[in-house]
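Hey L., structure's done. Input below.
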Amino acid sequence: MLCNPDNGPLRACKASQSMTSTPRKIIHVDCDCFYAAVEVRDNPALRGRPVAVGGDPGRRGVIATCNYEARRDGVRSAMPSSQALRLCPDLVILKPDFDKYRRVSAQIQTIFKRFTDRIEPLSLDEAFLDVSDCEQFQNSATRIAEALRQQVREEIRITVSAGVAPNKFLAKIASDWRKPDGLFVIRPEQIADFVATLPVEKISGVGRVTADKMHSHGLRTCTDLQALTRLELGQLFGSFGERLWHLCRGEDDRPVQNSRRRKSVSVERTFDENLSNLPRWLGALAALEEDLSRRLARLDAHYLVHGLYIKVRYSDFTSASCETPGAVPEREVFENLLRSQWQRRPEAIRLLGIGLRLKDALPARQQDLFPEEKRAALALQRASRS
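Output:
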């Protein structure tokens, strides 16, 4: 048992599926304030007003997202709705409509498919696109990004920001560089200069705790990290050290994967009143199990359960989780996990969640055996047409 106390009529183009030494052309697209933007689109009376999507402030709800008018007053995602209203008394808080957001997300995905079939959705509002072998716009990733942003604006009537770079790590950073409604491009020859002054907080996987540790060692930019050897990075940051060595140099060879599969499924609930003792913790399990069963039933039959876990959030907003191996989501297992967590910290909680670790039983798709030859052949085909 493990416990963690921190918890248009355009033709689609087929991009390469292989990892090669030739620089890829990756676009990261991120919708601006997605949930709030959809709500404002559907209700023009909200235009220009601070708007958030989230839970009821009278029932200890939290903010899921908010528009930039609200952010100017300090409102942020994951903030308690009651606190958001204190910061911004004119804030309009709307109940989320996830069915609508999923429909809009599917419409945006349809636009992406006009340009490439190599799409890796990260959530309803963001995705990676590999356009390395796209023939539209003379294979200019910048012009492709401009075109898809324009089509989303005209057809969906919301804005998206995009980042263009040779890899996923840099493309994701770039999409945030000129938000909202922005486009930023990092070309291969610009990588060294770009990462030189990049704050360590911008590195994927570096959270607050890791950033604080880096700062305590005088490491504030990627240049600072580049001064350390692989061994030194490993000594300081464990298994993450090797990945850090590459990321601080702007290196990331992960391919865009359009067949992302779930690694877990979970449900959680924030309560109107704190659950102050173990019997109340255990009493909340039945409703959560029903929700979890419904979610599990919606998944395809290729998933296997290989672990169970619980998550709690205390009244001071700190979180903890506890998990154990297992193939069957039994009530007794969840109860034992809750008892174990209660023994570690017997305090009132405001949120309880339960979940399952999943294993994908689908066979892995075979990799291209000759990726370099395939890419060279595609390049020759393009040259012969020009």
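DSSP finds 15 helices and 13 strands in the chain. The chain has four domains: 23-33+99-192, 35-97, 193-247, 264-360.

-- N.
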